[in-house]
Amino acid sequence: MEKNALYWNEQGNSLLVQGMYEDAIKGYDAAIRLDPGLAVSYNNKGIALDNLGRYADAIKEFDTALGIDPRFQAAHYNKGIALAGLGKYEDAIREYDTAIWLDKKDPAAHSSKGNALSWLGKYGDAIREYDAAIRLDPKSVAAHYNKAVALAALADYTAAVREYDRAIALDRRLAPAHGGKCNALVGLGRYEDAVRECDIALSLDPDNRAYIDAKGIAVKLLEGKGEKG
To answer: Does the residue 136 lie in any domain?
Structure first.
């Protein structure tokens, strides 16, 4: 049976989900050779390139997909991801905004826009995007976690702890949430609780230098508090 472009696109997708990005690209290239107007294959090839850290090459593929279909929502979103990978956060936000305009119910676009805003230090704006993502998908671990990070950056440690707890309730093995909660608890002067949280983070990621250092700070402050008492 003759293999058409859609067959090779699906072969690429199968390899993509297995993390076999170079082989996936070959599948998408085969699809594109058979049907140069198949926008989805350019988009998927861009995703594979993005996963290889080849952000500029990925953007070219997303642009080709958008040249074929300017309203291809996923290609706008994925181009935003690649632009963020290059540190072009303002450009990334423009792509996320287009993706949101095309699909207002896409939580990932709001969440990723929040990430770009956080990288620009616009934490209040970022939190609003995370809230939008959470309204659309209350079980989004990433949105709760990244909202907590943004709140901590604003020194709103009480709210940050609350969001870290929500992320942890959804994924108890999320070491960065435990580590972030440890730091937020230090900010609240809850050193004993901070040590316990750092211990959980270290049980999940024993060699993480940030968690080791955070625990050391919490222990030192706890000892100092005891001496003052």
So the answer is: no
